[in-house]
Amino acid sequence: MNILSYGLLGLLTREESSGYDLMLKIQPHWQAKHSQIYPLLSKMENDELLASRWVQQSDKPDKKMYAVTEKGIEKLLGWMITPVTAPVTRDEFNLRILCVGIAEDGSMRRILNERKNWFLERIRYFEDLKSRIPQDNLRVGSREFGSYILVQKGLMNAQTGIEWCNWVTQLLDGQAAIQDPCPSISEN
């Protein structure tokens, strides 16, 4: 089992879904393609972690719907109590920023603007996701609570990214002094 497998199991604890629906649902949290998801679903079904059924559709090809089994829930609960690994950062933008010392000011501004626009698009994306979460069911312990707090995390990360882009732009414009914008935060 890999991390993506556990994520798919987690999504299936909420509702029965097709492989395509699972791909869409996991995208805000984990980048995965069809070519990764379908073999995992097949393996988890063979391992009796999932059950499936075919749904006939008149206007489209039939689709296979997956549901998590009790064995799948047990496997997922076992994973939930293991330590979480450190996050992995792989961002081409960060590598380009390392090279700004040799870049022309115009190229630096261009990549900052591109990233700021990306963050703005992420905000729209997460706001759309947030609008689809039933607000009357939001409470700690509800199935939607995890989605809600992760959407909020995505919004906060994007907003912080925009603030960072604005700060760097102010540095380039000479409108801000080069100083630490984040004073040390003591642990609570």
Brief summary of the model shown:
This protein has helices at 3-12, 19-26, 34-46, 70-80, 92-97, 105-131, 145-172, and strands at 17-18, 50-55, 63-68. With 188 residues, it is mostly helical.
Characterization of this structure:
55% of the residues lie in helices and 7% in strands. The protein has 188 residues and is mainly alpha-helical. The protein has a 3-stranded antiparallel sheet with strand order 1-3-2. Strand 2 and strand 3 form a beta hairpin.
Features:
188 residues; mainly alpha; three-stranded antiparallel beta sheet; 3 strands; 55% helix; elongated
Strand order of the largest sheet: 1-3-2
Distance between the termini: 35 Å
**Structure classification:** mainly alpha
Helix fraction bin: 40-55%
Rg, Å, rounded: 21 Å
Number of helices: 7
Q: Looking at the structure, what is the overall shape?
A: elongated
How do the helices and strands follow one another from N- to C-terminus? HEHHEEHHHH
Main β-sheet description: 3 strands, antiparallel
Strand percentage: 5-15%
User: How many distinct beta strands?
Assistant: 3
Low-confidence stretches: none
Average residue pLDDT: 89
InterPro entries: Tscrpt_reg_PadR_C, Tscrpt_reg_PadR_N, WH-like_DNA-bd_sf, WH_DNA-bd_sf
Domain Transcription regulator PadR C-terminal: 89-173
Pfam families: PadR, Vir_act_alpha_C
Protein name: PadR family transcriptional regulator
Present the secondary structure layout:
Elements lengths: L2 H10 L4 E2 H8 L7 H13 L3 E6 L7 E6 L1 H11 L11 H6 L7 H27 L13 H28 L16
Antiparallel strand pairs: 1-3, 2-3
